[in-house]
Amino acid sequence: MGSVFNDYTLLSRLIFAINTVGHIFLSLTQFTSVVKRFVYGQNPEEANFNDPTHIDESKTFAAETESLLEICPSLKETNNPDFKKFHDFTLACGLPLGTVLVSERQSCRKCTKSLTLDKKEHLIVIYHSEHGTYLGNRLTKNCRRCKIYEHYGYWTQGGKKYFDADCLKNDYLLSTEDTAFQVSLLRQCENLLIVGAVAFSTFTRSYNRRFGYVKHLTRPQSSLLSPVNINEKRSPLL
Ligand SMILES: [Zn+2]
Fold first, then answer.
1. pLDDT tens digit string along 65-89?
2. Cα of 115 to ligand 1 centre, how many Å?
3. If DSSP codes are grouped into helix, strand and coil, which group holds residue 178?
4. How many CA atoms lie within 13 A of 75 on its CB side?
5. Helix, strand or coil for residue 151?
6. What angle do CA 219, 221, 224 make, to 5 degrees?
7. What values do phi and psi take at 151, rounded to 5?
8. Lower CB density within 10 Å: C or N end of the chain?
9. pLDDT tens, residue by residue, 195-205
10. Which residues contact 118 (CB under 8 A, 6 or more apart)?
11. Contact between 208 and 214 (Cβ < 8 Å)
């Protein structure tokens, strides 16, 4: 079993696991064992927690994870603080990069020539079920010959806009040139509408209350129930 520090794939899986479950998994050896199996891509059905070799490997894995947490103490923080820190930092730089939306397409859908990435960034407002409303950017690719402009989830040609057939499989939906919705947020809205006949206006009030977009505040901002309160200057959801 090689060290996680010698393999970027292992390291990225470990960071993902820490971000997902938290470093609490180090508190119980059986938890550590499961995470170790995930990180190393081992067969989950072969788990034998009493195997001495497996126990030794789990101890080594736990020690390496502890080392990683020493090197990167921010990994111990919960509630996704890195997103807020990163978003606010990029905002302070004048170039918000909370999320950057760009088409993954590399070649023109008509002539198959390589697409050119337009260097001009476009500021967008993003509505997200966990982060609330924040600022990001979108980029455009184009084929100069065909005059096709590829955006995240759609393309334009001759002044007309065409959505990709699978655009709702993306994480975000660019509804306008400067607005994107997290698709998961739209799914929540859709489900509440179908199951409970919850009106869109009720959904938006719930969203705005959750993230502190309340007009005419009668109490201090700090007392609002806003778990990721990055949104003081951002737009409410309609
Ligand atoms: Zn082309």
1. 999 999 988 888 765 556 887 788 7
2. 8
3. coil
4. 21
5. strand
6. 85
7. -115, 175
8. C
9. 988 888 888 88
10. 139, 140, 141, 142
11. yes
pTM score of the predicted model:
0.66
Phi and psi torsions of 71, nearest 5°:
-70, -40
Q: How far away, in angstroms, is 107 Cα from ligand 1 center?
A: 8
Encode 24-49: b = buried (16+ Cβ within 10 Å), e = exposed: ebbeeeeebbbbbbbbbebeeeeeee
The two three-digit tokens of residue 8, written as one number: 């970027």
| Distance between Cα 207 and ligand 1 center (Å) | 42
Write the DSSP assignment of 73-98 as a string of letters.
GGGG--S-HHHHHHHHHHHHTT---S
In this structure, what token pair is assigned to residue 27?
């508190």
Neighbour count for residue 83 (Cβ, 10 Å)? 17
